[in-house]
Design brief:
The chain has 630 residues and is an alpha/beta fold. The protein is 60% helix and 10% strand. It has 20 helices and eleven strands. A six-stranded mixed beta sheet has the order 7-8-9-4-10-11, with helices on both faces. The longest helix has 53 residues. It starts with a strand and ends with a helix. The N terminus is likely disordered.
Length: 630
């Protein structure tokens, strides 16, 4: 035999070693991760990650941001010129008009109208420019989340639920949208207007301006206190809505077992508890905002009253002009007008801050299976060559949740060989297959393809070399042709049809309402499990990989469906190296070699006929399978 298996050839001695139930092997059960941060809704992020994320999103929009800032500065200059013109009208225009000189009053009126018109036009330009910036930022944010989700390893997706991922891309991005579309515009207007008003008050009268600035101290303390309390509430609200989305998504994905086991009422009660919790947390944030608005309005009104009364005494004493007091009163009123809006701005900010922190935590996660810095290419495979050689050298694998799954072993599969891997549930069969597909990297050792470490191959090169077909044979919403072409996106219709004909799928595809243009709908629900498997095989044949991995490709099929798939299997595997994870021993019949696994170890290795004739584990499995057929 040209292949070798080193390491223990029988059951391990000493304490029994079991694959952990929490491991993401498809044969495991999954479970709680204990202290794992993935058990929480918020993933850890480096300090300042949220700020850096927002800056990185805004950096490409520097030009638009600059234009937006200039428009806002000009718009607020036009708005805040109004009270100043009122002061001029009272102190100069009215006395001049009393002497029949209406020129100053006329010019003030025209100036006021001009400022009002300019303010409206500039505000339109500012809103339009800022909306363009926010939409580009949100577009890039969603694209990053989607791109990063695809780049992250299977280990991440096994522990971080799809519902949480959906929550990041929907409700959390929506919170950021509210801040950018409304809150940030309001905040910029408030900040710029406060700056203008403060400068103008100090220009009109130092005492008046100083009193206005001094009145900001209690408001600042109030805002600081609100931010601290509201921040925790908004983080809890974001987590609460995420749990609602997770439960809703889980129910829809498992709708068949829900109906089969009549779990509608239980699910409704569980969802109701989560929904009521979200309602309670959301109500707490609204109450906190209401307290802030009441206290802020009380503070603002007290400050305005005090300043106006103080100014009136100054006018009576002849130390302040009446026009200056009128303008000052208007400016102070404008200074505190945004208090109510500021509460809403803080709401937007706190909500967006909590959401941005969660998105930053997600984007901070690094793939466990990274792209190589300097990828290499596999040697060209000549037509007719029997696949590529596969080798596991000193490979050991442990899931990060703990527990050794695959003890150290060596294994060589020559090019063109078909090896079937059998064993009990949890034996490590799927883990071995996932290492070969590089869904995971070994904890120790390396996996080689024609002598090249898989970690040195770029994703595109690896997927050309190795393709895995799972038990589910997942099909995406779209046409049959589009699903087959997934293996070769630039394939012509003729190539797609030839692949389907070679697999034996052309007949049932042609009988569909629109043939190859029939929409298979969600998860390929429009066609049967066997037909989905045939489409998946046609996809593989079109991709023309050197190595094919079949993970229990026939376990969910009936006998007629299994026969059709078995016939297609022979076509797919011809001239390729193959690893078949098999529960049904009928699949083993087409294998050149059988590997029997137990608790992560290869305990038997040999041709099917030789192992059946022996007295080992595979012989016993084969007899039990044969008896079950009888």
């Amino acid at each position: 035999m040209t292949t070798t298996v080193t390491g223990p050839s029988g059951p391990p001695s000493g304490p029994e070693r079991r694959e952990p139930a929490t491991g993401p092997d498809s044969e495991g059960t999954g479970g709680d991760t204990g202290g794992d941060p993935f058990a929480q809704d918020t993933l850890p992020a480096p300090p300042g990650a949220s700020r850096r994320l927002l800056l990185s999103l805004l950096r490409p929009q520097r030009g638009r941001v600059t234009i937006t800032a200039v428009l806002l500065l000009l718009q607020q200059a036009a708005v805040q010129a109004g009270p100043l013109l009122v002061a001029v009208a009272i102190d100069r225009g009215v006395p001049a008009a009393a002497e029949n000189d209406y020129g100053p009053l006329t010019w003030v009126g025209l100036g006021y109208l001009l400022c009002a018109a300019a303010s409206g036009l500039l505000l339109y330009g500012f809103v339009r420019a800022s909306a363009g910036v926010s939409q580009e930022v949100l577009l890039e944010m969603r694209a990053r989340i989607h791109r990063h989700a695809q780049a992250l390893s299977l280990d991440f997706h096994d522990r971080y639920t799809s519902g949480r991922m959906i929550s990041r891309a929907t409700s959390d991005v929506h919170s950021l949208r509210e801040l950018l579309d409304a809150g940030l515009q309001e905040l910029l207007i408030v900040v710029v207007s406060v700056g203008y008003i403060t400068a103008l008050l100090l220009y009109l009268d130092l005492g008046l301006g100083g009193a206005a600035l001094l009145s900001f101290l209690p408001l600042y303390l109030l805002v600081r206190s609100y931010r601290r309390r509201a921040g925790a509430l908004f983080s809890r609200r974001s987590t609460a809505i995420a749990t609602v989305i997770v439960k809703f998504n889980e129910t829809l994905n498992g709708i068949r077992p829900v109906k089969a086991f009549r779990q509608e009422r239980a699910n409704e009660e569980a969802f109701g508890r989560l929904n009521r919790h979200h309602q309670h947390v959301n109500g707490s944030t609204i109450l906190e905002m209401a307290r802030f608005v009441v206290l802020a309005r009380l503070t603002a009104n007290t400050a305005v009253t005090a300043i106006v009364v103080w100014g009136a005494f100054q006018v009576a004493a002849g130390e302040l002009a009446l026009g200056v007091l009128a303008a000052g009163a208007l400016y102070v009123r404008r200074l505190y007008d945004p208090v109510d809006r500021f509460a809403m701005i803080l709401n937007y900010y706190q909500s967006a801050s909590a959401s941005l922190h969660k998105i930053a935590g997600l984007l901070a996660q690094r793939p466990d299976v990274p792209e190589p810095e300097h990828p290499v290419a596999l040697p060209e495979r000549r037509t007719g060559e029997p696949g590529r050689a596969v080798a596991f050298e000193g490979v050991c694998f442990t899931y990060r949740t703990g527990g050794e799954v695959l003890p150290r072993f060596d294994l060589t599969l020559p090019a063109g060989q078909t090896a079937a891997v059998v064993g009990a549930t949890g034996a490590g069969k799927s883990t071995l297959a996932k290492l070969l597909a590089r869904f995971y990297d070994p904890t120790e050792g390396r996996v080689l393809l024609d002598g090249t470490d898989l970690r040195r191959l770029g994703t595109k090169e690896l997927r050309r070399g190795v393709v895995m077909v799972t038990q589910e044979a997942f099909l995406f919403s779209g046409t049959v042709a589009e699903n087959i072409a997934l293996g070769k996106p630039d394939a012509s219709r003729e190539e797609i049809v030839r692949a389907a004909e070679a697999i034996g799928a052309h007949g049932f595809i042609s009988a569909l309402p629109d043939g190859y243009d029939t929409d298979v709908r969600k998860r390929g629900g429009r066609i049967s499990a066997g037909q989905r498997q045939l489409v998946a095989f046609a996809r593989v044949l079109l991709a023309d990989p050197a190595v094919v991995i079949l993970d229990e490709a026939t376990s969910s099929l009936d006998v007629p469906g299994e026969k059709a798939v078995q016939d297609a299997l022979r076509t797919v595997l011809q001239g390729r190296t193959a690893v078949i994870i098999a529960h049904r021993l009928s699949t083993v019949e087409i294998a050149d070699r059988v590997l029997v696994m137990d608790r992560g170890r290869i305990v038997e290795d040999g041709p099917p006929a030789e192992l059946i004739a022996g007295t080992g584990r595979f012989s016993a499995l084969h007899r039990a399978w044969r008896d079950s057929l009888v």
